[in-house]
UniProtKB/TrEMBL annotation, chain A:
Gene field: nuoK
Protein known as: NADH-quinone oxidoreductase subunit K
Catalytic class of the enzyme: translocase
Lipid bilayer topology: Multi-pass membrane protein
Principal location class: membrane
Assembly and binders: NDH-1 is composed of 14 different subunits. Subunits NuoA, H, J, K, L, M, N constitute the membrane sector of the complex.
Similarity annotation: Belongs to the complex I subunit 4L family.
From TrEMBL, chain B:
Organism listed in the record: Yeosuana aromativorans
InterPro entries per UniProt: NADHpl_OxRdtase_5_subgr (IPR018393), ND/Mrp_TM (IPR001750), NU5C-like (IPR003945), Proton_antipo_N (IPR001516)
The keyword Aminoacyl-tRNA synthetase belongs to this UniProt entry's keyword annotation: no
PANTHER family found in the cross-reference section: NADH-UBIQUINONE OXIDOREDUCTASE CHAIN 5 (PTHR42829:SF2)
Coiled-coil residue windows: none
Membrane topology recorded in Swiss-Prot or TrEMBL: Multi-pass membrane protein
Signal sequence, start to end: none
Protein's UniProt name: NADH dehydrogenase subunit L
């Protein structure tokens, strides 16, 4: 419970964070920025987990533990994504999204 | 009597086939010949042991030869209808074991000499073993379906061996012809088996053949087009037998089958496989005899008699020595069929049945001998045609003597084997059907004539100048000739009636002197005519050929049966049936499938632009989709 702040206000903030992430994922031109946008989406959900745990079931810890899980998975996923991007850079000397469009039929 | 070991008789050749067939490139030819002969010797020894045990030690109980069966259920349909696999030992199967063993063993030994130096030597022995396995299995089958399985297996091995020289187009087409014609006949066989399964409710020979059994007693319960369904089934089964045994009008494959190596002709197309049809009728003899008062048996008799006459006439004019022998085989098998057809059931009435089996036995010996002798001649002069032969008696004394013995045996000259069996056949025909008896006597004369035409043409006649002087064949080829010649001399003295008879009781066979004298006389007349025509080079035969004019031409062209078949298949069936079906298949059946396929491809081409390769487009679609679904759910919930 955080005094003076209701769950709705926090959820509004995380929603905004989530959609910023989605917007960034769709519109950014640079693969690194896209990766950062994914992190925003993940962080929005992490905050949601913690907040909902805190406000609805204050005696329990599952939400918090899940948040830690997500952070760990996100770190691994970032490492993977960055290595893919590095390899891509070695191939085409670019990290621009528009240069990856050859992956189609 | 413990018969469990008899299963080894077919299994040993199968093992040899697998061993040689799978290692045909690794095993040296000389060794593979020994393996084949050795494997077959073991089987033959077991067969002889079985025969001894059965006929002389413990086959007979209270004066009746028993049937011993050792089987297990293979496919179960109902309580009575199931397909078994196993072995059945009774007089005719034991007799056939002996026939197959002797001829196959002799042919194996002979092939070691005849096929020497051939590229596919190991393959040849593998096929021979496969054939021997199939033939043993056919002989020992316990039920109709098992016999059908092995029936097809002998068909396959016959196909493989006829087409053994697969680089020769004529051999390939002969193999295909043999396979297709017999396969067509086997279609009838299969339908007959299915009818039998439906109406008789069992495939088991013992149940089917029991004269007091329900199948034979209730044959009249269902009829179709004026005949009992069981009769129809028997006629269809006989169609399969007629195809395998080259009975008119399904005989066209046999002369062409002579494209195979000569030992194969001796083994498959003279002594064993082609008599499978006779064996099948004999196997179901009680059914043929009792159902519909022997209607099907009469059909067998007339087809047999006609085939025998028809083939004997054609044999006179052929110039390829193997084809003469092929038509002679057809004629002699017709003899066996007609003997079965005129046979009764009890005691001495069953003389036709016994005579048929007796003739099968003796014929296997002397016809195999004739073929092997012909092979020896072909080996020496490198030609199949009579015009390339003549005066060979000086070069090939053993072949000459053995061939003469076989020719005397088939002509029915006493005391050679063919005389005894042919006499019994004529006695049976005389007692039951005079028309068939006259045909039989006439064919006996024709047989003697064409056989001695062949003999004089090869070993006497005009002296040829040979490029390479012919010489006697090696010992591996003459040894089988001598063994078979011995059997052709003494084979007739076996008291066959005591061992094989329709009712299993056995009876005392005795010679009918007037009939024997007539048959022998006719045979001697035939030999004498051949002597006059062919012993010395002269133009008599040409003069008579001219005198017969068009009839001679028809005969030498085998009454144009090949052409009739070609006309029916190529002109009528291909144009009238196959082409419309092919059109329907290509345009309607394939067309529908192609339409489905093509429209899928076209649609895909249209919409493949959606896959842009920009992952952000996909993400956008995904998000929009999620948003739309969310909106829909919100709308649904709030109302």
């Amino acid at each position: 419970m955080i005094a003076g702040i209701s769950i709705y206000e926090i959820l509004t903030v995380t929603s905004i964070l989530f959609f910023i992430g989605v917007y960034g994922f769709i519109t950014r031109k640079n693969l690194i920025s896209v990766l950062i946008s994914i992190e925003l989406i993940l962080n929005a959900s992490v905050v949601n987990f913690v907040v909902i745990n805190k406000y609805l079931y204050p005696d329990m810890l599952q939400g918090v533990i899940f948040a830690i899980f997500i952070i760990a998975v996100a770190a691994a996923e970032t490492a993977l994504a960055v290595s893919i991007i590095i390899n891509l850079y070695r191939q085409i000397s670019s990290v621009e999204v528009k240069d990856t469009e050859v992956m189609k039929y | 009597m413990n018969i469990s070991y008899t299963i080894l008789i077919p299994l040993i050749p199968l093992a040899v086939f697998l061993l040689l067939g799978l290692n045909s490139k690794r095993i040296k030819p000389a060794i593979s010949g020994y393996i084949g002969v050795l494997g077959l010797s073991i089987s033959a020894a077991l067969s002889f042991y079985t025969a001894y045990q059965y006929f002389f030690v413990n086959g007979k109980v209270d004066g009746v030869y028993q049937t011993f069966v050792n089987k297990s259920v293979w496919m179960h349909f109902t309580e009575t209808l199931h397909i078994d696999m196993g072995v059945l030992i009774d007089p005719i199967s034991v007799m056939m074991l002996i026939v197959v063993s002797i001829v196959s063993l002799m042919v194996h030994i002979y092939s070691r000499g005849y096929m020497k130096g051939d590229d596919g030597y190991t393959r040849f022995f593998a096929y021979l073993s496969l054939f021997t396995f199939s033939m043993y299995g056919l002989v020992l089958a316990t039920n109709l379906f098992q016999i059908y399985i092995f029936w097809e297996l002998v068909g396959v091995s016959s196909f493989l061996l006829i087409g053994y020289y697969y680089t020769k187009p004529s051999a390939v087409s002969a193999a295909k012809k043999a396979f297709i014609v017999t396969r067509f006949a086997d279609l009838g066989f299969l339908i007959g088996i299915l009818i039998m399964g439906y109406f008789a409710g069992t495939y088991d020979f013992e149940t089917l053949n029991n004269p007091e059994g329900s199948v034979i007693l209730s044959w009249a319960s269902t009829s179709f087009m004026g005949l009992s369904v069981i009769t129809w089934a028997l006629l269809l089964i006989f169609m399969g037998g007629a195809g395998k045994s080259a009975m008119f009008p399904l005989h066209i494959w046999l002369p062409d089958a002579m494209e195979g190596p000569t030992p194969v002709s001796a083994l498959i197309h003279a002594a064993t496989m082609v008599v499978a049809g006779v064996y099948l009728v004999a196997r179901l003899f009680p059914m043929f005899y009792f159902v519909e008062h022997g209607f099907a048996l009469n059909v067998v008799a007339y087809i047999g008699a006609f085939s025998s006459l028809f083939a004997a006439i054609i044999a006179i004019t052929q110039t390829d020595i193997k084809r003469v022998l092929a038509f002679s085989t057809m004629s002699q098998i017709g003899y066996m069929m007609l003997a079965l057809g005129v046979s009764g059931y009890d005691g001495h009435e069953g003389v036709g049945y016994m005579a048929s089996m007796f003739h099968l036995f003796t014929h296997a010996m002397f016809k195999a001998l004739l073929f092997l002798g012909a092979g020896s001649v072909i080996h020496a002069v490198h030609s199949n045609y009579l015009k390339d032969m003549g005066g060979l008696r000086k070069y090939m004394p053993i072949t000459n003597i053995t061939f003469l013995i076989a020719a005397l045996a088939i002509s029915g000259v006493p005391p050679f084997a063919g005389f005894w069996s042919k006499d019994e056949i004529l006695v049976a025909a005389f007692e039951h059907n005079m028309l068939i008896y006259y045909v039989g006597v006439f064919v006996a004369g024709l047989t003697a004539f064409y056989m001695f035409r062949l003999y004089f043409g090869i070993f006497w006649g005009k002296e040829q100048t040979y490029k390479h002087p012919p010489h006697e064949s090696p010992i591996s080829m003459t040894f089988p000739l001598l063994v078979l010649a011995l059997l052709s001399v003494v084979g007739g003295f076996i008291p066959f009636g005591e061992f094989v008879s329709a009712d299993r009781m056995g009876f005392e066979g005795h010679l009918n002197y007037p009939l024997a004298a007539i048959a022998t006389g006719v045979g001697l007349v035939g030999i004498l005519l051949a002597w006059v025509f062919y012993k010395k080079e002269n133009s008599l035969s040409d003069i008579y050929a001219k005198a017969f004019g068009p009839f001679y031409k028809w005969t030498s062209d085998k009454f144009y049966f090949d052409e009739i078949y070609l006309f029916v298949t190529k002109k009528i069936l291909f144009n009238g049936v196959s082409r419309p079906f092919a059109w329907f298949d290509r345009n309607v059946v394939d067309g529908t499938m192609n339409l489905i396929g093509n429209s899928t491809v076209k649609t895909s081409n249209k919409i493949k632009g959606l896959q842009s390769g920009k992952f952000q487009d996909y993400a956008f679609s995904f998000v929009m989709g999620a948003v739309i679904i969310a909106l829909v759910f919100i709308y649904l919930w709030t109302n």
